[in-house]
Amino acid sequence: MPPIAPKIDCMKCKYFYVTWDSNSPRGCKFFNFKSKQLPSTVVLQSSGEACLKFEPK
């Protein structure tokens, strides 16, 4: 069983933004991507680790 990653609240990160794209309404300026899911979820699924670039606003 993989270790439990800390829950990261993208809404409080300075790199998070809301897009005008209804298919990908959430984005991350640091990693330069948009997604339906929160960016921290995509990072966790892609790398297996919690997002290490979180910075509070």
TrEMBL record:
Q: State the protein's name.
A: Uracil-DNA glycosylase
The top of its lineage is:
Bacteria, Bacillati, Bacillota, Bacilli, Bacillales
